[in-house]
Every structure is written in structure tokens, then in C-alpha cells.
Amino acid sequence: MSFVSLGLIDPLLRCLDTLGYQKPTPVQAQAIPAVLAKRDLMAAAQTGTGKTAAFALPLLQRLTMEGPQVGSNAVRCLVLVPTRELAQQVYESFCTYGANLPLRMHVAYGGVSINPQMMKLRKGLDVLVATPGRLLDLYSQNAVKFDALQTLVLDEADRMLDLGFSRELDAVFAALPKQRQTLLFSATFSDVIRKMAGELLVNPVSVEVSPRNTTVKAVKQWAVTVDKKRKPELFMHLLKKRRWGQVLVFVKTRKGVEQLADILQAEGINADTIHGDKPQPARLRALERFKAGEVQILVATDVAARGLDIDALPQVVNFDLPIVAEDYIHRTGRTGRAGATGEAISLVCADEVTQLAAIEMLTKQTLQRIDEAGFEPEHRVPVTDAGGKAMKKPKKLKQPKSPQQIIVPKAAKQASRKRR
Ligand code: ADP
Ligand code: MG
Fold first, then answer.
1. pTM to 2 decimals?
2. Gap from CA of 368 to ligand 2 centroid (Å)
3. Which of 70, 151, 232, 234 lies most in the core, judged by the most C-beta atoms within 10 Å?
4. How many angstroms separate the CA atoms of 325 and 359, rounded?
5. Å from CA of 383 to ligand 1 middle
6. How many A from CA of 158 to the centre of ligand 1?
7. Taking CB atoms and a 6 Å cutoff, what residues make up the pocket around ligand 1?
8. Full pLDDT tens readout for the chain, 420 residues
9. How many angstroms separate the CA atoms of 208 and 217, rounded?
């Protein structure tokens, strides 16, 4: 299978050549013909397998072939995504893939001035990538019209259709023409969302590339059990001992993100943060600096879990486990992209046993536990497995409380020295 045999036009083929894309990924091979044929589509494919190009390439082609016909404030193709950073990235992908095409494209998300977005919309757009909140703002100010809308894409579709966005999405659906093409893409779809999606799509093509809801095999995953209060210390310890380079660290709360970043910075480590309380320009700057390798540790909430494509990121750490099991797959998927390898490590405390069990059940794997000498938890994390069970009740270990008193076994000490 080649991009030529998929029937892509010359300007796109030239661009793919420049990017060094030699052949379509499986999701691209299956989705591109369906999108070109104007079919509705639900596509499930693992993280980092090129879903963006799977919808962007055929849409760019169709918009070009149909010729420029965009009226003022009109949008022909709307792509909705859950976060501002992802909106920016998907927009940049459209610009990259469509570099040789005469199309008008823009991006709209909150936290930055709405005026430039309104100006761009005035002449109409072939492609608008947006987050739902800002899109509705623009709509309520008559800055965007949907009469000419042909295609709606929901990237990270299961997230877009879940409860968090339901009010906004209902308002968007009410504003869009009923006659349109709808495309859904994600690495995860729960059964509930699958059913909802079914009601949204007309005679859809279904693309399912790998086993449902799975993590990428090339990402080595393991867990360390530890007491909650010792997580920062353990993170620092692993960072030094294992000589980690760049790490994306996920923390449950915004406050927790800042606290960990403070601890790291106090140790002289180059760390920055991304979370919802931070001004948007600072959020984007932190991500750009991390992508450019100028920041070693990026500490983030789940706002960074979905879709972000960070080249050659070797390490993801779950400082806290995600509340929603699907997010584990997305967080893990920030590494091991486009065929690369990676590692995802979870620091798990006794409180998180239910989350751990849910993750193992969803991903149909039992996470390997690797103990870290000197960090054995006082509050044991019960045994879990892929059957979704926490098999044993938490047991309190009889162990000295202060870390200094813990006697590290000789062999473990030697092994740890070797790695250093
Ligand atoms: P997904 O949305 O499935 O997580 P992305 O669309 O973000 O994945 O793509 C992941 C990475 O793979 C990007 O860096 C992209 O440039 C690269 N990529 C996409 N398609 C191909 C291809 N056919 N050949 C090589 N690399 C590709
Ligand atoms: Mg994606």
C-alpha cells in the first residue's frame, strides 16, 4: 500500500515525500478512501499511529478538488478537539500537510484574544480547528456560520462525547446542518460512547486497527508501589538513579502539579508546568520549550494527556494514577509514537488500588511491579490483576517509619550503585 495507490493528489504526495512518510499507517490506509468517498466514519487506532493525517489528508484533498467556495464567516470543515494545545497542534498539522494547497485555515481556542480569530473568519475558512467553548463564543457573536459546513471531525472523539463536554457539544450539534459528514477518531472508545456515536453517524464505515483500548506494545510499562507522602522523594530518586532524560509527569490536581514542580526546581532541576490555572501563553510556551528540549521535566494535569505529539519523548511518569482508566492509555501514548519505543512508569500508593485494578482490566494486562529498595510502602498496595480485582486486603507492614532506619538489602544496594 502506498499513498499514490490511495489516490492522493500530487501536492499532497509531494508534501508527504518531504516529511519522509514512506507509506500510510494502517488507520490511514483504511480511513483515507472512506473520507474521500464522503462516508461517515468511526476510527479506533492506537496512540501515535497517525490519525491526524488519516482525516487531514483526504479532507484537504476534497476541499481543494471542490474548489474555493467559502463565503464570509462560513466554515466548510470543522475539527473539534478537547484542549487548546491539541487545537494548535492539529491546526499546525493541517498547515503542514496542506502547505502546497490554496486553502484558508485557522484555529480558535480560549485563553487568548478572540479578535484575531474573528478577523480570520470574516473571509470564511476551509478548515477551522477549535475547542468547543471558544467555537460557541464565536457562534454567539455571529462570527461563524455553519450553512456551508460539510464535515465535522471529532478528534479524541470519546472525550468530546463524554459528560464533560456534553452541554457544549449539544449546542454545537444544534447549530450544525443535519446533512453533513461526521468523522470520529480516538485510541479509546468505551461501549457507552460507541452507542452514542452510533446515533450520531449515518451508515458509518468502522475502522478498528488494533485490539480495543490497548496501549502501544513498544512502551515498556511498570509500576512502583510507594506511600503517598514519599512520591516526590521516589520520583527524584528514580530520575537520578535511572538517569532519565526528558520526562512528562502526570499529576492529579493543578495544585499538585505546582507543588511537584516547586520541589524539582528547588533541587535545581529544569521543570515547567501545564495545567488549567495557568495563562494560555505560558501553557503554550512551556509545551514549546519542552518540545524543543529546553525543559527536562514537564509536569502536567490530564490536560496534556490527549493527542500531544512530542517527538522522541522517552519517559512518561504517572505520579498519580488517572481517575479515568482510559486516560492511562492516552498518557502512556505520549511516548512510543510513530514506531518509537518508550517507557511509562506509575507510582502507585494504597489509595489508588481501585484505579490500578481498573486500568489493568481496561488494558487487559497486569502491570509489572518493580520494588524500589528503601521505598517499600508501609501501606501495602493489594495485589491486582487484569481481571480487575484487588485480590488482597491492604495490610500494614511492620516497618520502621523513618527512611533512614530502613535497611536496604546488600544486593539491592549493589544493583542500585551499578545503575548509577
Ligand atoms: P495519533 O493521532 O494517532 O496519536 P498523530 O497523528 O499525532 O498520531 O501522529 C503521530 C506521529 O506520526 C506524528 O509525529 C506524525 O508526523 C507521524 N506520522 C503520521 N503518519 C505517518 C506516516 N505515514 N509515516 C511516518 N510518520 C507518520
Ligand atoms: Mg491524535
1. 0.91
2. 27
3. 151
4. 5
5. 37
6. 20
7. 21, 24-25, 28, 45, 47-53, 309, 337-338
8. 899 999 999 999 999 999 999 999 999 999 999 999 999 999 999 999 999 999 999 999 999 999 877 789 999 999 999 999 999 999 999 999 999 999 999 999 999 999 999 999 999 999 999 999 999 999 999 999 999 999 999 999 999 999 899 999 999 999 999 999 999 999 999 999 999 888 899 999 999 998 888 989 899 999 999 999 999 999 999 999 999 999 999 999 999 999 999 999 999 999 999 999 999 999 999 999 999 999 999 999 999 999 999 999 999 999 999 999 999 999 999 999 988 999 999 999 999 999 999 999 999 999 999 989 999 999 999 999 888 767 445 455 544 444 433 333 444 344 333 323
9. 17
Best residue among 21, 189, 207 to mutate for probing ligand 1, ranked by most atoms within 8 Å of CB:
21
Q: Kind and range of the H or E element at 419?
A: helix 410-419
Residue 368 to residues 328, 345, 390, 393, Cα–Cα distance (Å): 15, 10, 15, 19
Domain ranges of the chain: 4-208, 219-370
Radius of gyration of the chain (CA): 23
Q: What kind of architecture, by CATH, is found in domain 4-208?
A: 3-Layer(aba) Sandwich (3.40)
Q: Which residues contact 355 (CB under 8 A, 6 or more apart)?
A: 321, 322, 323, 325
CATH code at 219-370: 3.40.50.300
